[in-house]
Structure formats: structure tokens, C-alpha cells
Amino acid sequence: MTPGKWARTWNERLPDAPLELVAVSAAEAPDVLRDGRADAALVRLPVDRTVFSAIPLYTETTVVVVPKDHVVTAADEVTCADLADETVLHPLDDVLDWEAPPGEPAFERPATTADAVDLVASGIGLLVVPQSLARLHHRRDLTYRPLLDAPQSDVALSWPEAATTDQVEDFIGIVRGRTVNSTRGRAAPAPQSKDKSKSKSNDKAKDKPPARRKPAPGKATARTPRGGSGGATGSRRGKPRRRS
User: Fold this and answer.
1) Segments in the chain below pLDDT 50
2) CB under 8 Å to 119, separation ≥6 — which residues?
3) Which of 39, 115, 116, 218 would be a feasible disulfide site paired with 89, CB 3.0-4.6 Å?
């Protein structure tokens, strides 16, 4: 695994909580989590879902590791049938779920993937592994090619379900690409600023005198004009006075 980019993001966001990376084998990872020696781990699925939570991240390409001068290197990718006549090493710490490994089995199973890589370099056989392990055990005299129809390895972020702390949630957020402002699934605070603005608006509305309504078009106002001849409401009532 190469969690360096996530570790850098963690150190930028949470400098007061140092993140320690511990390298363990795929077989050891569940026990490391159970014993509390790590808060979370990058693991290969499957894991015990009665104990661990897990977020699948990606599926690795499976490759066959061969000497650089091997005939397999003539192709860009190969199939299990292409390895039928080859001795294929199957280490005891193999992380691939085979029904039946391809090729001819070696006389003895290597103890580890690292041991198997040394045997490939000695010309004893070939090795099928996830691509990250081929890169981890890279040697100048070896190379690899994608193996199309082999089992693949799913990688996940996992942690004990009973120990889902805030810092574990922080790391989950970083791995999933959440921004620094994300709530990471926690309850977001209520938007107080909007409530205050509404309250201020209501207070102003209470203090403001009621607006005077305008008359509808074509209707006279309730006030009586002091003079003028603008209509019936402006005329004098009674008989006109005689002039001498």
C-alpha cells in the first residue's frame, strides 16, 4: 500500500495529532486492529464484518512476475492458459483467492512472497501477485505483465466497528477525498446567521408605522377637498345666493 498522500493531507489538517504509519503483512492486519495496535488499516478483502467496518477503495490488477528475458514479455498481457506449461510459485502468504492456481506447482511452496520473488530471479518459476506487490518487490532483472483471467484483490480501509472515533472519521474523510470543511457525516450546526437576520427584519417591521393604502384607480379618496370643481364631491349644496 502507498498511503503517503493521505498521510500528507492528515499532517496538513491535523498537525497536533501525528499520524504514524505501520507496515504489516496482509495476514497480520486483522490481528493488529483487534489488539488495538492500529486505529485503522488498509487491508485486502474479505474481512470479518461482524468485527470490522470496511470501505472498499479499489480493485488491484493481477500480474505475473517473470525474468526480463522470458517469452511472456513478448505480449502486453497474458492469460492463465499461457502459463499452463510454466512452474508457478504459490507462496504461503498468497493474497489471491484461487480455486486452482495456473501452471505446474513447484516442488515446495515458498514461505513468503519475497522468497518467491527471489526464486523467480533464480529461474525456478513464475509468480502471480497483485500489482502493488510486484512493485514492492521490484528487481532490475524482473518484470511483470497483466494476467487477465486471474482472481483480483480488493483493497479497503478497515477499522474495528466498536472503535469508530472522531479521528477515525477524520481519516475516512481524507481517504474519501472530503474537503476540510466537510462535516464527515456529523451533525452540522444550525445556520444561526439566517435566523438572526429574520429576527431583525421582524423587529423593524413591528416598529415601522403602517403604510397608507392608495385608492384604487377611478375611485375618490375619503378626504373631502377644500375647493375646486373636480366633481360632485367639490360642489356647494343649497340654493345659490342672489347678487344685488
Assistant:
1) 185-190, 199, 221-222, 224-235, 244
2) 89, 106, 110, 125, 127
3) 116
Torsion of CA 131, 132, 136, 137, to 10 degrees: -20
**For residues 153-188, b (16+ Cβ closer than 10 Å) or e, as one string?**
bebbbbbbeeeeeeebebbbbbbeeeeeeeeeeeee
* Chain centroid, CA 22 distance in Å: 22
Q: In the structure grid, which three cell numbers stand for residue 163, read together?
A: 472503535
C-alpha cell at position 33: 486492529
| Phi, psi (deg, nearest 5) at residue 174 | -65, -45
- b vs e for 9-39, b when ≥16 Cβ sit within 10 Å of the residue's Cβ? bbeeeeeeeebeeeebebeebbeebeeeebb
* Residue 178 contacts residue 184 (beta carbons within 8 Å): yes
Beta-carbon contacts of 151 under 8 Å, excluding residues fewer than 6 positions away, are 62, 96, 97, 98
